[in-house]
Specification:
It is a single chain. It is built from six helices and seven strands. With 238 residues, the protein is of the alpha+beta class. Strands 1-2-3-5-4 form a five-stranded antiparallel β-sheet. A two-stranded antiparallel ribbon has the order 6-7. α4 packs across α6. It is globular, with a radius of gyration of 17 Å.
Length: 238
Amino acid sequence: MRPPERPQTPDGLLALRDGELELEGRMPWSSNATYLVRVCHEGRLSGAVYKPVHGERPLWDFPPGLYRREVAAYVLSEALGWGFVPETIVREGPLGTGSLQRFVPSDFEQHYFTLLERPEHHDTLKAICAFDLLANNADRKGGHCLLGEDGRVWSVDHGLCFHADPKLRTVMWDFEGQTIPDTVVADVARLAVSGPDELASLLDDDECAALAARAAAIVRRPVFPPARSARPYPWPLV
């Protein structure tokens, strides 16, 4: 089964694009500068997570501009029809260009490991696991799966995705050897034929080609793989 469909929220995207932004403060426990901002749009207040490029810590294997990968993850989730990445855009903010993602009010005591104990969330967790295979997520910590106050499971923190080389590092190995659900594979198959054009402006050509190749590989062998790399788990785990 697919994860539950998220209602379309065009107002949410409009608020992110056109709303006035005010820094609330820096979010704790983030390796890169990550800020909670207040968004005011047409008299309504909402929250968003802002990741400016100037706050990124240099990495040896990923180029600057991790914020574009955050947006690419949203584009990919929407193209697949899975809708578990909160609305995310590129935006000029108080500290320069970066990603701006709708803040999801959540029960922050819940994470992947606690959600795994509840079978009603397994369909969405399997879809997120397949998403990470597809996006080549190099940093899927348990705390990147959120249980929203709306009862939905959300997926966040995708700055280390879409590398052209194999980089998969995740806590989500519990489905190892299981067949990827048919509906998930069908969605991936559509993407393998024609991906969203918007990704070309967010990723390099070789990264787009690698994404298409990973999609085709999932369709050919729709099984969750074992942890083969020397460092299959991120740190910290949550």
